[in-house]
Write a structure and sequence with these properties.
171 residues; mainly alpha
């Protein structure tokens, strides 16, 4: 995503173009990929809303470190906002345990190490639910739309939320 975003910002290239795919493969393989090893940018374009600040950083290693920090903040935010969403009152010790768990459980660490945007999608889903609860349906729709940057993960959640909204006549 960083390469695609960087080339979109600096050269105006489509992230889905062959030039971008070639640059991604050059970065990872040092040249053209072997058959079956091609790396393509396959995310929806609105992912660039999240990636652009990191793609603006020239140094990949620094951008990667900043991205991983952002993902860790997202994981902790998911935990805090989820506790708030369900209005769970807990002791400080339990809250610390929940935050440590949120940061260190397998799915969080895997997303962090892989640099996977799924943690950001989950944050947007929690924000969507918070907005639904508070009656801010426009913001809820915005966050749901942003969460769709990972459509294969978001399909069922999105269908559920849309069906729920229709059943409640919250257009």
């Amino acid at each position: 995503g960083w390469v695609a975003g960087r080339l979109l910002l600096t050269k105006g290239w489509s992230p889905y173009g062959e030039q971008v795919s070639a640059e991604i493969q050059h970065m990872f393989y040092g040249g053209e990929a072997s058959a079956g090893g091609e790396i393509l940018f396959v995310y929806p374009l609105h992912l660039m809303v999240v990636i652009a600040p990191f793609a603006a950083v020239r140094d990949y290693e620094l951008a990667r470190a900043l991205w991983m920090t952002f993902l860790e903040v997202a994981l902790v935010s998911i935990a805090l906002l989820s506790v708030s969403l369900v209005r769970w009152r807990m002791s400080r010790g339990l809250l610390i345990a929940v935050l440590v768990f949120a940061s260190l459980w397998y799915h969080g660490v895997r997303a962090l190490v892989n640099g996977n945007v799924v943690a950001v999608c989950a944050l947007f889903v929690v924000l969507c639910f918070l907005m639904i609860r508070s009656g801010h349906d426009l913001w809820a729709g915005l966050f749901l739309g942003l969460a769709a940057m990972k459509p294969n993960v978001m399909l069922l959640v999105s269908v559920f939320i849309v069906l729920w909204a229709l059943s409640r006549r919250r257009w």
